[in-house]
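Troubleshooting: if your tokenizer reports a length mismatch, compare your output against this known-good record of 203 residues.
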Amino acid sequence: MFSPMLIFLALALYGLTHSLLASLRWKNWARRKLGETAYRWYRLLYTLWAVFSFLPVLYLAAVLPDAPLYRLPLPWAWGFVLLQGIGLALGAWSLLATDLWTFLGLPQALFRRDPDEAEILTVRGPYRWMRHPMYTASLLFLWCSPVMTCNALAFDLGATLYFFIGGYFEERKLLAQFGEPYAAYRRRTPMLLPRLLPPVSRS
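Known-good structure output:
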């Protein structure tokens, strides 16, 4: 039980710091302390931190003592791998639907773009059907693995919990940032499960 608990706690710590550093309150505090010039690097540094600070969690899941739970037989395993592929494709589509370089923070840091003006509300691509397609893609990939172990289950449960809790705070931030346009978008668009038909544009 030690390994799954450690992985779960590591993911909880990662999710807590990830959400804290992405919050408007923290970002406004950093902007006051750093000044406008240095603050333009905040998004890029945050992205790099989010990537590299996640590596220890993956390391723990890979090296800690583990035990198998199940392995799906063929042809069921193929079907689950296909679902994982769909998850990867959805994740790639979601990234392409955003301004990827702005999402990473490069224009803000290198071309002195105002960080606030650089952030836009994305409602195209898979975002027309669901508010958090990246979360949906990740959940599909994680839970459709044809092989499950104790460590993998702890990782999947921790990630799923983070998606729901982090999504709640992310939506509060987006509502404060974009106001009524995001409130209207949230009312007409499901969070994780896509609608069968895209909403009719009234513009």
